[in-house]
Amino acid sequence: MDQRLNGHSSPLHDATIEQTKNMLENISLLSKTQDHTGHDDDANKPLRIESLNPALLPSNDAATTTATSQKRLIIIGDVHGCKASLDALLEKLSFAPDHDHLIFTGDLINKGPDSLGVVDLARKYSASSVRGNHEDRILRLRQEMMAQSEESSSSTEDESESEEEEEGEKEKGKKSDKNDEKKKDKKEKKEKKKEKKKAKKKEKKEKKKDKKDKKDKKDKKDKKGKDQKGGKEARERDLALQLSDEQAQWLESCPMILKLGWIRGMGEVVVVHAGLHSDIELEKQDPWNVMNMRSVDFDKRKVLDSHQGTMWAKLFNKHYSTMASNNVDSAASTMTVIYGHDSKTGLAISDYTKGLDSGCVKGEKLTALVIEVGGKQNLVQQKCRDDVKE
What we know:
6-stranded mixed beta sheet; alpha/beta
């Protein structure tokens, strides 16, 4: 698929005056809907924003004949480890690393067959990417597993030290005066204390082992069903362990928001994984929302990662289209968001939002939005059957 996009290509559906009024009232409430109960870790995570090197941008002047006229930004939706499909898409695009720059909308990894290969490709071509919810989860899991491993090593060292101390005390006991009852009582108390401490450590270790054994049994039982929770956890643990330090560091370096700069026909362009609030400054966006949001439930005053509320993209488009109708559509006030995360909706190209997750890992398509000189845009898609097991 090679679909040409001339400026703003897909306007919002018409709404009645009353619907528009209600929508705008909802938009004004967005900044008050920062409830992400159950995501405290994300709430405390600092929001990372980066700006793309301006030298990578194609010229906004369509008449340019310099080297910048060959530059392209190739922005690709959720890959999810489908490297064969990514390779095929790049071949279809005639990708040239010397003048093309790759940008990913996050979720490069997990679910698909070759997550490590996708990360290596991105690193090889010095690609840019934002942090998706899957990268976030796998990196967290990796950190937890490393911490548990260190804790286990520390526990083993403590036990060895305790045994050495016990042997040392025994040697001292041999040299002590057998007739000194005071020393004997003191030693007995110390021995009891050590035995108690040792018993506690043993009990803690056994509980930890029992817990691990139960977890391992559950994982083995559930691994047969890929879609079951246990299978998912086992798969994600495996991926977290397989990541090299270099691969993990590259994923950690990905920002949550990537600012591309001003592009003709789009205004200020930003890339995120999931979504943005339309009336909140980028620096004040909530990290969990940026990586997970799909809709907003105004009744419950919550941002949702489901489709049960009003879609954030609909609100975002209404916000900026209203500004444009009020003649506030200037380079400083217009923004276009390019995102992924929503394979259920699929490819969703609107005036101010471009959703590129087209369900590659489910056997559908992998989408690239190509931005060329003068702000010219086109869509290129690749079928993803090669990465999906029958």
